[in-house]
UniProtKB/TrEMBL annotation:
Calcium listed as a keyword: no
Keyword Hydrolase: yes
Membrane-spanning ranges: none
Gene Ontology MF: a single term: metallocarboxypeptidase activity
Domain annotation Peptidase M14: ranges: 298-569
Residue ranges, compositional bias (Polar residues): 647-656
Protein name per its UniProtKB record: AGBL carboxypeptidase 3
Main location: cytoplasm
Start and end residues of each stretch annotated as Disordered: 1-21, 636-684
């Protein structure tokens, strides 16, 4: 059912505030026209039938017979059977084999590749002698999405060529797979072309394919020739990912970073005049006749998500405080799930809880965002005292996969509408962009019931290392508000200094980004509205410098997010005010060391927004601010649970009160001075927000 209306909490369960007035669990019309049997009554213009979706018309013995719709499944995930089957565009060819991988973390961090300067740059002019060994022709059968089927194309699949020699065999017609064409250009050398996003001619970045019929110990070369981005992490040491089924079975080894002679370079322009870029690498397979896979990033499919959610739903403990519902259906009629996570209460106190919103995978090729989301869910649904405290304090709304259609077909950026969903949060086209439309509507209704203190959309980044955030702000804002919106990212950088780079964070609103979830939620009134960007590569910070991120590294960011959230909303505001002071000190620190030619540019804008260009720069280049931040990381205190905090609040109250009075007076005075000539450009925000914020009293459980 769609998240289209909100109700109060009941006495029995978490609340029905996500239920819609209209039923989203419609029976799908059978794709074969001669077997079409079900239609809703509002599909007919006959005045005999009322316009309703609750009456189904079943074709029996040559006439339409009305009947009532079956009762809907309240939570969208049934414990009595499997989840909804995966639906594909009807023309997509899909193999029957189900691809599965084990979870595995290397015992040591995997280093990035160090160029030798001797890497080759293969160029492949068209030749009639080259042999095409793999070609996926189904992608271009339709100019736009038409309809979907479970399992995709039902005609017999064209089998890959079964070579008797040592030619490699390729396959990518499985969930999230992407490979368009493979040409054998030499005995052990292959030219690969990845498929653009369906119904577009661009966004060639994600690849994920299977290789068989190999020989161990032979040096093979693979070259992907149709990337479109001029800059890539592959030129900064990133290695492709490799998976061997024999290694997984014999040694329980999963995805690992591999490759030598890695080079990313510009090649000859394509037929349309655009320049393309190639990625080349060499590799020796560890086993003969193995089944292996290569991928751009650790795969995380729609089926992986459904199996994870099914485990939650069937868990008698976690299912009590995590309710899974269907936010909406996609163009292909796949389900977009929404999770409501909070401790159920039997009274109206739950309405005092503030809300936190997390979303991920609006861009399907950014699989690292799903691993961060998994880490967050693992922690918040765990049995630790801090997880319990978070569930007692907040209502979490989580949309773990906004673009399941794109994930299923192996797109990098777009949905089946051929558009980037993260540029269409302002769109009114519900039918074209259902997941972002319903997400925005859910947030709007949620804000009518309770305060939303933070929104975060999880993404992956293809050009920069580390993990960082984009926020929303403008140089014409008051300095106090300006600094306040940087506190949560600063706390996050102090909690995980070897992964999160505060100096790489940006806080501005570009015109081209006004349709993103981050900007739209900020304009709706959520002050802490962020995009978290996770590199496809690894870290340049601390002990992890020069190494790739593993899935466990990405999952750990889910814990650090929760840790920082508790720091940010701690009733003891010491850490909060300390971060404000540190941001002010950072401003003064940079002011003393730098002289700016443009006197109209605010110092803090340059200090905290060191990557104001669209491409940005490596965070390690910001030496002054980065060095200063590293000095601050050692000041973080151990996070306390609610019980531990309450036992110390009374003894610390008197000593802290005097400091609070000074801090608040100091900040309010700065706010008053900075706002004297500045007006907030965002509508519907009171000028005295910060006064009310600091005057509000925080209860023992953490929030009003």
């Amino acid at each position: 059912m769609s998240e289209d209306s909100e109700k109060d909490y009941s006495d029995e369960t978490i609340s029905d505030e996500d239920e819609s007035d209209e039923d989203m669990f419609m029976k799908f019309v059978n794709e074969d026209l001669h077997q079409c049997a079900l239609l809703t009554a509002d599909s007919f213009g006959d005045p005999f039938f009322p316009r309703t979706t609750q009456i189904l018309l079943e074709y029996q013995l040559g006439r339409w017979v009305p009947r009532l719709r079956e009762p809907r499944d309240l939570y969208g995930v049934s414990s009595s059977g499997p989840l909804s089957p995966t639906r594909w565009p009807y023309h997509c060819e899909v193999i029957d084999e189900k691809v599965q991988h084990i979870d595995w973390t290397p015992s040591r961090p995997e280093p990035v590749y160090t160029p030798t300067g001797l890497e080759m740059e293969p160029l492949y002019p068209e030749s009639k002698e080259a042999t095409v060994v793999y070609l996926a022709e189904d992608a271009y059968k339709e100019p736009c999405f038409v309809y979907s089927r479970v399992g995709g194309n039902r005609t017999p699949l064209k089998q890959p060529m079964d070579y008797c020699d040592n030619t490699l065999m390729f396959e990518a017609r499985f969930e999230s797979g992407n490979l368009q064409k493979v040409v054998k250009v030499a005995e052990y050398e292959y030219q690969l072309t990845v498929r653009p996003d369906l119904f577009t001619n661009k966004h060639t970045q994600w690849y994920y394919f299977q290789v068989t019929n190999m020989q161990a110990g032979i040096i093979y070369r693979f070259t992907i020739v149709n990337f479109t981005k001029p800059a890539s992490l592959y030129n900064r040491g990133m290695r492709p990912l490799f998976y061997s089924e024999k290694e997984a079975k014999a040694h329980h080894i999963g995805w690992q970073r591999i490759g030598d002679q890695i080079k990313y370079y510009r090649n000859n322009p394509g037929q349309d005049g655009r320049h393309y870029f190639s990625l080349t690498w060499t590799f020796q397979f560890p086993h003969n006749k193995d089944t292996c896979y290569f991928a751009h990033c650790y795969p995380y499919t729609y089926t992986n998500l459904q199996e994870y959610l099914s485990g939650i739903n069937n868990d008698p403990v976690r299912s009590k405080f995590c309710k899974i519902r269907v936010l909406c259906h996609t163009l292909a009629r796949n389900m977009v799930y929404i999770l409501t996570i909070t401790t159920p209460l039997k009274n109206s106190d739950s309405r005092k809880r503030k809300a936190v919103i997390l979303t991920a995978r609006v861009h399907p090729g950014e699989t690292n965002s799903s691993w961060i989301m998994k880490g967050f869910l693992d922690y918040i649904l765990g049995n630790s005292s801090d997880a319990q405290l978070l569930r007692d304090t907040f209502v979490f709304k989580v949309v773990p996969m906004l673009n399941p259609d794109g994930v299923i077909v192996g797109n990098y950026r777009c949905s089946l509408a051929g558009r980037d969903l993260n540029r269409n949060y302002t769109s009114l086209l519900k039918e074209s962009f259902p997941s972002v439309w319903y997400t925005r509507n859910m947030v709007r209704r949620l804000m009518e019931k309770r305060e939303v203190i933070l929104y975060c959309d999880l993404h992956g980044h293809s050009r920069k290392e580390n993990i960082f955030m984009y926020g929303c702000d403008g140089s014409d804002r008051s300095k106090t508000l300006y600094l306040q919106q940087r506190i949560f990212p600063l706390m996050l950088s102090k909690n995980c200094p070897d992964k999160f780079s505060f100096s790489a964070c940006k806080f501005n609103v570009q015109k081209s980004k006004e349709g993103t979830g981050r900007v739209v939620m900020w304009k709706m009134g959520i002050r802490n509205s962020f995009t978290m960007e996770a590199t496809f590569c690894g870290s340049t910070l601390g002990n992890k410098r020069g190494t790739h991120f593993s899935t466990k590294d990405l999952e750990s960011m889910g814990y650090h997010f929760c840790d920082s959230l508790l720091d940010y909303c701690d009733p003891d505001r010491t850490k909060y005010y300390r971060c404000l002071k540190e941001l002010e000190e950072m401003e003064r620190h940079i002011t003393l060391e730098k002289v700016f030619e443009d006197s109209d540019t605010p110092v803090i804008e340059i200090t905290l927004d060191v990557e104001s260009s669209s491409r940005g720069s490596d965070s390690s280049e910001s030496i002054d601010s980065q060095t200063y931040l590293l000095k601050l990381t050692s000041q973080k205190k151990h996070l306390k649970t609610n019980k531990e905090r309450n036992s110390t609040i009374a003894s610390q109250q008197n000593a802290r009160e005097g400091q609070k009075v000074y801090d608040r007076g100091h900040l309010l005075q700065r706010h008053k001075e900075s706002n004297s000539d500045v007006k907030d450009a965002r509508p519907n925000e009171a000028d005295n927000y910060m006064v009310d914020y600091f005057r509000s009293q925080l209860p023992d459980q953490g929030l009003v």
